[in-house]
Amino acid sequence: MNQYSRRRGWSRRRRGRTRNNLPLILSGAVLALILLAGGIFFFKNNGGLPTLLPASPSNAPGGQASETPEETEPLTEEQELQNLLDEAKRLAAGYDYDGAIALLTGNEKFKDTKEAAAAAAEYEEIKSTLVRVDPSKVTHVFFHSLIMDTSKAFDGDSRMEGYNSVMTTKDEFLKILDALYNDGYVLVRIHDIAYETTDENGNPAFTWGTVMLPEGKKPIVMSQDDVCYYPYMDGDGFASKIVVGEDGRPTCEMKMDDGSISTGSYDLIPLLNDFIDEHPDFSYKGAKAIIALTGYEGILGYRTASSYSETPDYESEKEQAARVAQCLRDDGWELASHSWGHLWMGVSDDPENPYKISDERFYTDTDKWENEVESLIGPTDIYIYPNGNDVADWHPYTEENYRYQYLASKGFRYFCNVDASKPAWIQKGPDYLRMARRNLDGYRLYEDMIQEDPAKKRLSDLFDASQIFDPSRPTPVTWNYGHTQNETPAPEPEQ
Fold this sequence. Notes:
The protein is an alpha/beta fold. It has two domains: 78-129; 133-467, TIM Barrel (Alpha-Beta Barrel), CATH 3.20.20. The protein contains 14 helices and 18 strands. Strands 2, 5, 9, 13, 14, 15, 16, 17 and 18 form a nine-stranded mixed beta sheet that branches. It has a three-stranded antiparallel beta sheet with strand order 10-11-12. β10 (241-244) and β11 (250-255) form a beta hairpin. α4 (97-105) packs antiparallel against α5 (114-127). The protein is globular.
């Protein structure tokens, strides 16, 4: 057994323990909260530690006791029934007809009412008309951080060409969502396409998923790269970080011209949430997008990289980032590795290849992501190659591919490269899934818009690029990917 096989086995056991112990961990957390609450009560009423008391008006110096909250009226049976019907309707809107039916028929109090019975029958009828989609033909589109203020991003400085090439504006993104929705596309998770199971010998195996949609609906996977809000982006018209909103859902902060911080829909995550709230049938069973994270400057707008370890807010930044990551998971988002340093991860036999990295740097980078990012966000099995640079060509991964083996040893099972030449490319291996992604950025939109040969348009199955392209962009849009301090330049995406 080689070192990669040993590491692979260790990783699977480590991740398995995390999953298997989750109920125990949660139970312990609940018990801890109960004990803490009891401790606060005890100390408050026995003259104990004042530091355990919350800073509320009732215990602050000169404060007044808070008003007793009004007692809420118990729901009537009619209201209870309506809530049940509304929840079932919500599930059905996202194509979870099984969940809706189970909710209605499993409610002992209302399952025999004419309203619940009629709704369950309606969902059964709709369910019978659903069609299984071909998982091997699912397309995957991706974005980088969205430009919120084009006047700042396209202001003529040294970063403008990079932004113009690989970023998408807010207006373009919203138009894309409208176009996809109107054409019948529905967001699905990459785990809906195929999932890991075990064969008769107990070895890992991948099997095609079963996605059932109304006839005419088309599944699509979405991802966003580099959701880290690098320092170089400050003042250029982007959000500054992801935070947990007052409603408990992820949203964004953005620095305003006057130096104030505004919280709102300033990037893909809250904008997509807004869209799904308005169009729940755009999401299959609550699917959102994949959020891909590097680590060299931290994640989600928090400076969590080890290079910031001497800063006074370092531990607080890590705690906040971990909280936001869990909020994203709870809200239906999937998290992925985009490597630690956004390097050229593929293997090259050409000694003159300027993007080539050594094996040692490959291993070090992978380990750093595990130590500095996965330690905050929890395990993930999705790896999105920086620059789209896969560790193999189109042939299946093999046991001899030591870079693939090392990634697999870390628990990665889903691998995404970049290929804009075809609507979909998916390869299901014995214990992995590979999927090509299509860039919906300034360069791709511009190239498709000016292309006169219809056969060479790469986005026509999704939308008319001329109806999406933001007129505030400088033209022509050339390929420029050297927009961050830690990235190696990438060649143009495959045409």
